Amino acid sequence: MNVIIVAKFLRAPQKFSFDQPRTIALFAAGLLGILSLGAGVGYAASLVAGDNGVQAQTLREEIEQQRDELDAARGDAQRELNAMAIKLAELQAQATRLNALGERLTQIARLDDGEFNFADTPAVGGPQTDALAAVPTGTELHSSIDELGMRLSMQSEQLLLLESLLSDRDLDAALLPTGLPVRSGYASSGYGTRADPFSGYSAFHRGVDFNGPRGSDVLSVADGVIYFAGKRSGYGNVVEIDHGNGYRTLYAHNQQNLVKEGERVKAGDVIAKMGSTGRATGNHVHFEVWLNGKVVNPSQYLRNARG
Q1: φ/ψ (deg, to 5) at 286
Q2: Domain co-membership, 211 together with 146
Q3: Does 102 share its domain with 204?
Q4: How many domains does the chain have?
């Protein structure tokens, strides 16, 4: 069998005869070389492809690990923000409570309007400096917030105590006999020794008499509870008020009592109508102040005006 090979790189066609054993051996050797070369190239390509596959798998694993770390960091950051938001909400609630306490204290202490305005942000300032403070870390920020919360709690307790003290002071002032038991009129007889209006003899007068029109209002001079409302010999219609702290006041010769025993009254409430019942020469209210079971001069209480 003859094989003719024609190619551009050959000057002339080549003819091979497979009848000769030498030609067959050469052709077989060439074919084997070509097959070996192809197998080598294929194996090398498989090795390269294998290396690239391993590298790609490693890269994918690294990316997945970084993604997991990023998700974990994002979760930690969100938890930190949530915790900080809760703390800020607590601080806001404490600040609101302090503002409400401050406004109440302003009213109780009767401070001038505008001296403490809790609706406005306090003014702050200072000279500019070249040095820039370092940005606080998360731990430092948490510590600052916790410290501020402790300060707000302490100040809240102090303000509550101050409010209690001011309220007690106002309560004591409200219970202290102060001012006149009438809206208008004049003192017709003072406290102390005087000539008895009926006998003319010297006698001790245990109160102050306030003259006025019949039926005019008789006022409580302090907060208290009605201790007695009824008739007494010589006094006519009487109202007696217990103000606590050992104080009692008495209002006598009333035309009509308007309160009952056990009833609570405030300073300025109308408790009776002026009259001349009992041992009286005309319309007036006889006013007495008692302290710890002893009658005292009402003048020192009458001179004070309630704010």
Answers
A1: -90, 120
A2: no
A3: no
A4: 2
User: Does residue 168 sit in the same domain as residue 208?
Assistant: no
What the block records as the tokens of 34 is: 């070509």
User: Mind listing the pLDDT tens digit for each residue in 173-229?
Assistant: 566 778 889 988 788 889 998 888 888 888 999 999 999 999 999 999 999 999 999
Map residue 111 onto helix, strand or coil. Answer: coil
Please say whether the beta carbons of 200 and 189 come within 8 A: no
Query: Is 20 in the same domain as 155?
Result: yes
Quick one: which of 20, 160, 45, 151 has its CA closest to 101? 160
pTM strictly above 0.70: no
Enclosing domain of residue 163: 1-119+138-175
| pLDDT tens per residue, range 250-264 | 999 999 999 999 999
The sign of the dihedral angle between the CA atoms of 232, 238, 242, 246 is negative
246 SS3 class: coil
Contacts 24+ apart (CB under 8 A), 80-89: 80/138, 83/142, 84/141, 84/142, 84/145, 87/142, 87/145, 87/146, 87/149, 88/145
51 in a domain, yes or no?
A: yes
Whether residue 14 is contained in a domain is answered as: yes
